[in-house]
Amino acid sequence: MRADPALRILVVDPCPDNADSLVLLLNCWGYQACSARDGPQALEVNRTFRPQVVLLEVALPGADGWELGRLLREQASAHLVVLIALTVCGREPDRVRSREAGFDGHLTKPACLDKLHAVLEGVADRLEMLPGWRMYRLERAPAGAGAPG
Which of 8, 66, 86, 94 could be 55's S-S partner, Cβ–Cβ 3.0 to 4.6 Å? Predict the structure, then answer.
């Protein structure tokens, strides 16, 4: 469990059971997490919640998850974001597509929870080392940033 709950994580998954259980787990690990079910909701939550990490199922019904990742990254230019595919798409061409779309990582479902936790702890540690990160957290965190979903 992380003592510093400042890391905000957005889970984008069309399956409510997957999204809700992952949000619950992330919150138990000490992160502040919320979810979105589709592209438009993900863009809205990204704008208001301002996550530092997005865990994105790229296999979204009726949408290109890799393109959504690009849009989330573009929209997040005002705040730091680490983009990780957490997806059923696990073939090598899918991993290559994630890299080409600017994703920072690619985990295949069902993800090993120890690996996911290690990845998130690594992200938190790297962000802590960035110049001005503490100031960024204090100045940029949304007021009363309660997880919307």
Answer: 86
